[in-house]
Amino acid sequence: MQTPKASVSEKISFNTSNCSAIEDTGSGLDSVSSPNPAGGRGGQETAIDNVRQVRRSEQQLLEISASEDDRLQELRKSHKIEIERGSLNSEAVQKQHSMDSAAFGFCYE
Predict the structure, then answer these.
(1) How distant, in Å, are the alpha carbons of 70, 88, 91 from that of 83?
(2) Is 1 within the bounds of a domain?
(3) Range of the domain at 86
(4) How much is the pTM?
(5) Residues 6+ apart with CB under 8 A from 100
(6) Count of structural domains, the chain
(7) Region entry Disordered: which residue ranges (predicted)?
(8) Are the C-beta atoms of 87 and 79 separated by less than 8 Å?
(9) How many Cα atoms occupy the beta-carbon half-sphere of 66 within 13 Å?
(10) What span, in angstroms and rounded, lies between the C-alpha atoms of 54 and 16?
(11) Is 36 inside any structural domain?
């Protein structure tokens, strides 16, 4: 039996909390804390900037995901309305057909 897959929001939430821990404590960045040989910023600063960029990207994905979820809900709602309209239309056609058949039958009596 397969286990349910985590939603995009759950995955992003998990990754965001991991990034927060790294950003807040700097844990896991000790190995890159030496200065950049090219004379730029230190590796830890660059890693923290990368974590911040990942967090911004994850936030954007969450917003897009929420927007897409809203759009799906609207499409489902529209689809349901169209199905109901089709059902009502079908019932009206069947009723008209019955009335026409009854009227046609009276013509030959």
Answers:
(1) 20, 9, 12
(2) no
(3) 8-107
(4) 0.45
(5) none
(6) 1
(7) 1-48
(8) no
(9) 7
(10) 8
(11) yes
